[in-house]
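=== Structure Prediction Worksheet ===
Name of assembly: unnamed complex
Input type: mixed (protein and possibly other molecules)
Chain count: two
Listed entries:
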Amino acid sequence: MSKLITSRRGLLKGAAAGGLLAASPLVSRYAQAQSSAPIRIGFQQHSTGIGAAYGRWYGRTTEAAAKAINDAGGINGRPLEIVAEDDGTDPKRGAEVVEKFANQHECDVAFGTLFSHVVFGSAPAAGELKIPYFVVSEGHHVASGALNRYTLQPGITDVKSQVQAMAPYVSQNLGKKVTMIFPDFAFGHDHRDFFTQAIEAQGGEVLEHIAIPPTETSFTKYFPKIPRDTEVLYHVMVGPAVLTFVKELGEFFGPSAPAIFGFIDSLEAVDMSSPGLEFLDGTYFWEGMPRYAQADQTEYDKAFRAAVGVDENGASVSDAKDVSTYAHMFGCWETLYIIKRGMEASGYAGPQDRAKLIEAVEAMSAMDEGFEHPQGPKIFNGKTHQTFGKQYISRVENGRMVRVHSTSIEDTFYPDEVDYTAQSF
Amino acid sequence: MARLIGILGLALVWPELALAHAGDQGFVLLLPTDVYAGAGVAVVALTVVALFALPDRVSLAMFAARAGKARRDWQGARDVTSVLSFLMLAGIVALGMAGPRDPLSNLMPLTFWTLGWVGVVTLSGLIPGLWHWVNPWTGLYHWLAPGWRIRPLPARWGLWPAVLMLIGFAAFLLADIAPDDPERLAVFVACYWAAIMGAVLISGESVLNQVELGHAIMGAFGKLTWGKSEARGWPGWQITRADPMAASGAFALTLLAVGSFDGINETFWWLAQIGVNPLEFPGRSAVVTQTLIGLALSIAGLLAVFLLTLWLGVKIASAQVDFPRLVGHMALSLLPIAFVYHIAHYLTSFLVMIQYTVAALNDPLNTGADLFGIEPFRVTTGFFNRLDWVRVIWLTQAGLVVLGHVWSVLLAHRIALDHFERGRRAALATLPLSLFMIAYTLLGLWLLAAPRGA
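=== Predicted Assembly ===
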């Protein structure tokens, strides 16, 4: 389809140039330069700092998407050029990078940020410089209304909807009496607040909230706090001590553990067959996109893996132990395609059309599963600048994660908290 | 609020420069590092005990040099390589200014930090006189203005200017918010090159040894090599012959303090001290002041502890010594520790960054070129996902740290023989320093094993 459009547009372009050529060589050369100048996408990449492991895979995915788009004719007949700048996973540098995109590198849009504090630090700069800022962060910050009209998250769902969508499956299949173990800071608190509310809405309850200090590296002493009648243990530990956490949890419970449910963020980019993780067999994980190719793998997932260079276990095709950040990185791919669609719908020609581009994206709603959306179908909410989509629950079986449930998109909805379209440009 | 994604691989922050990476820490925490560390400390402690039984002649023989024939003068060849090095530097500075913006694709930061700061500095402790071959000043100077100078730097300044330069460099390495930004680094390097070239033209070539950091650092580590053809011996022998100057000692101490703080500042422990959640590191820009304070405290703290151990040693041995001379000389015995710290600290990041360097050499302008025909070349960190590899890497790092401390203990004892009465008194005089080195072994091994979050 896109190939067809491209070739037709290519013909038109050729015809126009030909006509102009007859009239005025100078004008024609200018028009030609205008039409073929690349669209520059500023890629705010976590090349260094604590986000570097994600940054590497976001980079690979972004490159793959840009190549796919260019191979199919680019955007509005113009090639896509990715201008990657390192933000050091640092909010202050993030803002500087956005400024560079707008003022120095002549980028059309900024894109790609993952870590929330960098998004928070950079979004005001995007708003001031009036450059569309497409984040791939999962944070609830966009939909919460804390940012601005120039900041959008159309390619990845937010944590609030993810957590909330887990509650129906957990309460119906794993149990209604939940104990939550989470790191004692904002990330853990989000899970605590969103999930507690959601499980109560399903008629369940959280028996105990166990907050672990972020500097903790040994966890056994916290486990006796888990109430005996716990049916489900919900964990979202992150950081270098995660493997230790799982190992100690296994030693504590032995074979008689309650059902265990976690977020794959804990083990993103970690090989599930790593030592100490055997205990996870039979436990459940939220996945943004199933890391292991499933029995009913779509052709879109297959194509996405091939483009990025990832095998059926979610690892690099050149090193089976180099595990990708598969649950998140699709967001870069899908966001680039949304930018493309937005630019095509708005007839985007240059920075003067940035507002039109944002309006075009705001006007989007349903996005069908396909090559452009390999993670699954989505519904974009133009008012909150946030996309909503299916979530997946997988069970660890013999060191692989097997999908056991897909939520509906509706499971992820919550009432709007902002209407960015009411803000002026 | 927001979702902040943590990952096992919070990693080594590359100066933590571009090296930021790698999920090995999760696996390191699974290793019995306390057992390994115990064994390592025991090795150093046994070495200290053995000093009391070690005959002086063994110690003297250990660091004795064998005279050899001086080979031909290589200065002409060194000028050629130096000029080539300058041209290469000019090339990568240009790349830094105009090349790819991503530090992992740009040869400016990759060459400077990975090949230079990690690679060449490491090699300088193994290959005698390396920096004389590859520094980007001497060749040009010899060709364009040989012998030219207006006013030399006072000799009594010794290495003090280099000490200040080292502190400045450490501040850039550890506290600057973007030391690996290609353009920023290119400007920094170009200005540094020009400033040093200017200093050489004003004060002559000798200024390089007093001011220039490459000469100072690689000169210090170069003393750990077996030596040139004129005289060769067991690594460290050159230190026993070194002219004991307070400034050289201060430089060695600063080098070790910087290397140590470069590990400390990433640990959960340090982050807790400065009130930063290690799972939610706010970025380098948020901790600039704290890092500078930590750096200053490390340098001052190490200096104070070192002086105290020497003073105690002198007291215990009831010896009459020239104390400043003793300090200047004994501080050089810490160079092996500083050297192995440098290698051990950067080993993991080097394994990743060297891949990026190869990729960037293959495609210097990030235009999709494939100069070596190695595409598709994909950087991997998969070896950090394997316990067996992580164990090998960790034990290599730990082995280096232990080796460096044993080396330093032996060297300190040998130097003491020149300042104290021989026999047990020298061993007694260095006992506090030896105990300090045992403790430092523990610190080094703890740094390798500690959870990191910055």
